[in-house]
Give the backbone structure.
Amino acid sequence: MSSKMRYITEEVRKVVSQNQKAVVVSQWTSMLDLFAQHFRRMRIRCHLIAGSVAIKHRTEIVEDFNGNPDGAPVILLSLGAGGVGLNLIGGNHIFIADMHWNPQLEAQACDRVYRVGQTKDVHVHRMITQGTVEERILQLQQEKLAMANGILTGAAKLATKGLTIDDLKMLFNPGPPAYAPKPMVNQPEF
């Protein structure tokens, strides 16, 4: 078990022991499968929502998570499935296990828990491993959010549809990062 996975599973165990519910998000379904194995060993029941799960079954999972106090206290959610109209207000902790270069995908996943009808305080836990490509992804996210903010306020008229060559060079440059990490720009409060 990686240190990140160990940390997340332990934090989820604490959340569940306080009779709260959690959503663990990853862009990698194989990572979610590993989480499922570890939660089974810890005797923590969980559901999986990924692209391979039929819509009918997703509805059953969501209804159980939101409405059944004795139901599974954890949902493992793929980042791709997390942006598609789910309402997971039964949970109040969301753990983002790995970062994506597009911060809006992460925001959409968080919005599944932080929705109309949510009555509990929502806690978003973002896991960033120091000294890894994740620090560069954080920098890229900050730049994308600043650009989006500029577009929304009329300060810039730029279109971004994906990663540029310069973005990829920055992410996979073998040298140490040539920047000092900055705080998130306009990070939503949860």
The longest strand covers residues 22-26. The beta strands are 22-26, 46-49, 74-78, 93-96, 123-126. The mean pLDDT is 79.
